[in-house]
Write a structure and sequence with these properties.
Shape: globular
CATH class of the largest domain: Alpha Beta
Number of helices: 11
Largest sheet: 5 strands, mixed
Number of strands: 10
Structural class: alpha/beta
Helix content: 40-55%
Strand order of the largest sheet: 3-2-1-4-5
CATH topology of the largest domain: Nucleotidyltransferase, domain 5
Bound molecules: 5'-O-[(R)-(carboxyoxy)(hydroxy)phosphoryl]adenosine, zinc ion
Strand content: 15-25%
Order of helices and strands: EEEHEHEHEEEHHHHHEHEHH
CATH superfamily of the largest domain: ATPase, nucleotide binding domain
CATH architecture of the largest domain: 2-Layer Sandwich
């Protein structure tokens, strides 16, 4: 019998639905919310309203693209958290209602766990190239920066994390300082391609062990620009490529330094990256380069599965389904998780 999982993601500003059957992706639809652009960040109330408008058409489109009907669904996997409470409520309430109507089980998914399992998303068996267990994952998103040891698909241990800002936040906050629109990460990536990564140096935090810190970088970047703007009002515009390249290099360097340490301490050579920042071309190159030097086997999610999507929710749901891990109608969303 087929195991067909409908995945639903609504933790931030993307409404997404995906269908995974027997471990293979059949469809992955994402409705991005444009309403936040003019506000310089995600406005929670607007996100909830947009999810409410998008969720039915997105689920419908995902089923159609998959060539499946509601009657084919074995279980519904939805993001329980972490994320914006109002946004999570839309996806979880919709999923609960649909699971009752179809009389199929519900599976609650931790969004961060799902980011890590994005390296298991494939459309067919020729694409299969999966990490072995245990593997080490550098999880870098808008709200989280963690080093995680995956012992199997469902068991993990956080061995390092940021003590303040996440890497994605560092990209976005520094972009804002430069007057770039939200989210700044992808724009910095684009501008950095034509810049010199060694044009400027910014302060890198010294944090012991496998933890990270990025809040000092934003301050250092802000003061640097303030001084330069005194001398030249057009400094940012005149040097935006070099600024972005140098900033990106600083963030990547901090991440790589801890990744190397973690690989050494754990003795693990199967290395993955995941989360929105893993879409960064500089980071992808850096991990690949390092992997070749250190003899690591490197796993990087395809671009479309690096940022928020429901395919990662569905694949995590698939592994939880195989393990009989279902959730009840009583379960409520959680905005913040202290654990994975
Ligand atoms: O995983 P994600 O889509 O959402 C969260 O779970 O937070 O990550 C979003 C973060 C944002 O901070 C965004 O600026 C960053 O990922 N991001 C990037 C790139 N694409 C997305 N950062 C750097 N370079 C990129 N190409
Ligand atoms: Zn995410």
């Amino acid at each position: 019998m087929n195991v067909t999982i409908l995945g639903i993601e609504s933790s931030c500003d993307d409404t997404s639905a995906a269908v995974i059957e027997n471990g293979y992706l059949l469809s992955n639809r994402i409705a991005n919310q444009q309403v936040h652009k003019e506000y310089g960040g995600v406005v929670p109330e607007l996100a909830s309203r947009a999810h409410q408008q998008n969720i039915v058409p997105v689920v419908d489109a995902a089923l159609k693209e998959a060539g499946r009907s509601l009657a084919d669904i074995s279980a519904i996997a939805y993001t329980r958290g972490p994320g914006l409470m109002g946004a999570l409520l839309v996806g979880s309430s919709f999923s609960k209602g649909l699971s009752m109507a179809l009389n199929v089980p519900l599976i609650d998914i931790n969004h961060l766990h799902a980011h890590i399992l994005s390296v298991f998303i494939v459309r067919n068996k020729n694409e299969k190239r999966f990490p072995g267990f245990p593997f080490l994952c550098l999880l870098v998103s808008g709200g989280h920066t963690q080093l995680v040891v995956m012992k199997n698909h469902l068991t993990m241990e956080i061995i390092g994390q940021t003590i303040d800002d996440a890497a994605g936040e560092a990209f976005d906050k520094c972009a804002k300082v430069m007057g770039l629109p939200y989210p700044g990460g992808p724009l910095i990536d684009e501008l950095a391609r034509q810049g010199d990564p060694h044009a400027y140096t910014f302060a890198k935090a010294v944090v012991k062990g496998l933890d990270f810190s990025f809040s000092g970088l934003k301050t250092s970047f802000l003061y640097f620009l303030r001084d330069r703007l005194h001398e030249n009002k057009a400094f940012i515009n005149d040097h935006k490529h070099d600024l972005c390249a140098s900033l990106q290099e600083t963030i990547i360097d901090s991440l790589m330094q801890k990744l190397i340490m973690a690989a050494k301490e754990t003795g693990i050579n199967d290395i993955a990256i995941a989360g929105g920042v893993s879409a960064n071309s500089g980071l992808r190159e850096a991990v690949n380069r390092l992997g070749a030097r250190k003899d690591w086997r490197v796993y990087i999610p395809a671009m479309q599965y690096a940022t928020d999507n429901a395919a990662m929710i569905a694949i995590t749901g698939y592994y939880k389904y195989l393990n009989g891990q279902f959730s009840s109608q009583q379960m409520t969303p959680i905005a913040r998780f202290d654990h994975l």
